[in-house]
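Much of our argument rests on the idea that a fold can be written as discrete symbols. The amino acid sequence and the backbone structure tokens for this protein are reproduced below:

___
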Amino acid sequence: MFNNILVTGAGGFIGFDLANYLARSGFHVSGIDIFYPRNQNLLSFNALKFDFRQADQARMAMKNIDCLIHLASAHLNVHLSHSEYWDINVHSIRALLDSARDSGVKKIIHVSSVGVYGNLDVWPADESTVCKPQSIYGQTKLAGEHEVMKFYRETGLPTVILRPAWVYGERCPRTQKLLKMLRKKHFIMIGEGKNMRHPLYISDFLKIIEQLLKSNHSSGDLFLIAGPEYLTTSELVATICQVFNLDYPRFRIPMLAGKLAALSAEKLFQLIGRESPVSKRTLEFFNTNNAFDISRARSILTFNPQYTFEKGLQEIKLKTE
């Protein structure tokens, strides 16, 4: 049992929910991030405000910590340069892990992403599937995994790497954006909507982290973590509309037209210094196949996700309406 926990990226959607969940479950939790939600009443953990790359402060935060959960990463910010992605997601990791080892941390949980796979040719993929990342995010998350495994091989410090699928929930920016667009009838299907998506409700992800903290599993392993089902983009959108009583979007444009629109919009909004409403990253929702075999996590970690996509959406509806 690991009682004293440090979570990096504790101001983001997953990190904030995780830090609060663990604190309310009886763990002693500290978090590191640059920004936190404005409503401080939501905080039930010790929120430290700094960049995890600040070595001296990170070292101080590690004192008396049993387990480090590393969630912080460059992800959705389209204004970040490629060099920043590499610095945050790869080059900064070894110093953080060395500080953890030197401070007596007993276990490390590194949270990666299924973005390392890119667009799957064959699915469902498992941990042995060859990774072909198609974005700077996926490339750097894969390189970050290599840094973590190198550290494990050199030090033997108990380490687990998780590759979660798309984690959704009431505070998830992607979930909020999808709902907003569908409610305002601004959502346009790009392509046929036949590509696969694999959602993972936040509660299922929080529980597998808690399970890892309570177990002795520490073999330097890698696990895919996803929900109990995958579905097409069309099915995903239809399920949202059904649960929230919304009209299914009537408009669809061909994939080629979507790619041209994304390219043009990115260039235009870059000139005026604003984030484009549609981009190459946006298109991944419509043209990338994500579907995963979680049997390894089921077998070894006894991972048993409880939330189908519809059930997860019903939870969101209860909490937000």
